[in-house]
Amino acid sequence: DIQMTQSPSSVSASVGDRVTITCRASQDISSWLAWYQQKPGKAPRLLISPASNLQSGVPSRFSGSGSGTDFTLTIISLQPEDFATYYCQQASGFPVAFGGGTKVEIK
Amino acid sequence: EVHLLDSGGGLVQPGGSLRLSCAASGFTFSGYAMNWVRQAPGKGLEWVSAISGSGERTYYADSVKGRFTVSRDNSKNTLFLQMKSLSADDTAVYYCAKDGVGQQRDFDYWGQGTLVTVSS
Questions:
Q1: Chain A to chain B, count of Cβ pairs less than 8 Å apart?
Q2: Other beta carbons within 10 Å of A8
Q3: Phi, psi (5° rounding) for residue B104?
């Protein structure tokens, strides 16, 4: 089974900062990688899939990159509404696996 | 507009059973695989199960295999998760999630979640 490792587990940042989150798969998943945003008490929201494809309605300050085993989610110019937890997910097949999550907190 | 409404959660004793439902609307239900994803209190996301659009193929996480059964009624646009032999480790918010439109196995719409608490 494919394991997903995210880092860091949390990051403190200020409005306007650039934030980078990394995700590593235990084996090659090509570009089959999804990123989600989750706010407290809410369901996750799909941001990017596969790898670098921004979903409709997602602000352009979010971007994704990578292929194979190493992936990155970048948020340029962090906005107040971006403080949340972000998860990567291998989207190549079953069993589906999520990363452990990265909490983006206000500094 | 796509809408998924999870229901059926509640308090159940260890060893007990529970059936979750997810009512779908706003898309051709039979055309998409559906999933269950859970989140224990304060923890991350864990994929639980999936079922193909026709219902012919089902998939399970090792943690629930043999105890949970996923099914769907395409005539009623409803997804189900039958859970048995529940333990405290199954305490979580359970979300139904719709497969995305591409080849990749992502989840583009989610229900609001239903809380399952396993406790005596």
A1: 63
A2: 13
A3: -75, 155
**Does the distance separating the beta carbons of A100 and B110 come in below 8 Å?**
no
- Cβ B105–A97 below 8 Å, yes or no? no
Amino acid at A93: G
**CA–CA separation, A1 and B35 (whole Å):** 18
Q: Would you give per-residue pLDDT tens digits along chain A (107 residues)?
A: 999 999 999 999 999 999 999 999 999 999 999 999 999 999 999 999 999 999 999 999 999 999 999 999 999 999 999 999 999 999 999 999 999 999 999 88
Q: Please tell me which residue of chain B has the smallest CA distance to A30.
A: B104
Among B80, B84, B90, residue whose Cα is nearest residue B118:
B90
Show the tokens assigned to A53.
């494809």
